[in-house]
Give the backbone structure.
Amino acid sequence: MTADLTVVAAELSLGLLRREDLPDLAVDSIMRGLDSPSLGELAGLSAGDLSDAFDLIRAALDELGVSIPSPDERDAALWTVIRAEAHAMVAGRRPPIDSARWIWQVAALEVEEEGDLRVFIGLASEWDDHPSERPRLERAIVSAAQELLARPAPRRWIQLRAPAAGSPLRAHRQGTYEAVNPDDLAVSLRLRTDLARWSSDFSLNAAGFVDRASAELFVATGERLAGRLQDELGGAWHVEYWPEPTRPPGLRLRRRWWH
């Protein structure tokens, strides 16, 4: 349980605090130099008398000038807690797999922009499936946490994928992909034109490319477009590239691209 009351306020707003943990949280906060009348009263509660615990932590936060996030600030509160989890595992205060599982099973299901959390889902799943690799995977989890903390904010993830119709760009939010109009992005007219041409090329070849060379050229063109898109959007974004060109008798050429 953290004594960072900004994190406590975020956890409180999200319903992540347990009543029975609140007295120890108050004691820890006082030992770190924080104090208020309600915090002292909370620290003195016995295990059998916790009925006022939540009222006291709310009062203590108010006395110490710490705001509790509103429902409209839920996403920001989640990221406050996610970053606290990342700090805890990097500092060695929390087992990496425990934090990765919490991110997988709780946080990634709730935040709007969950792309930067996918690495933890993959590593936690591998940890479960490959016991002999666990030390390496735990180091990878900590490394991913360090990378997450190095970013000032979560990146927006966008996918470039050849569509049967419509925009070739999709944004992934809370388990679903939503079409993104290239005109709504801060990218050049030339790039938007080239994306439209690439998408049209796929539509014209929806039944299959005439030969493997044509399909591979389409894949390579898309890869270059993905790189240009990443460069123009900048570090606040992450571009995924998922082409699926085909040629008779149904060959699918797949290449996942990571910038």
About this structure: The CA atoms of residues 191 and 228 lie 8 Å apart. The first strand starts at residue 156 and ends at 160. Residues 246-250, 254-259 have pLDDT under 50 and may be disordered.
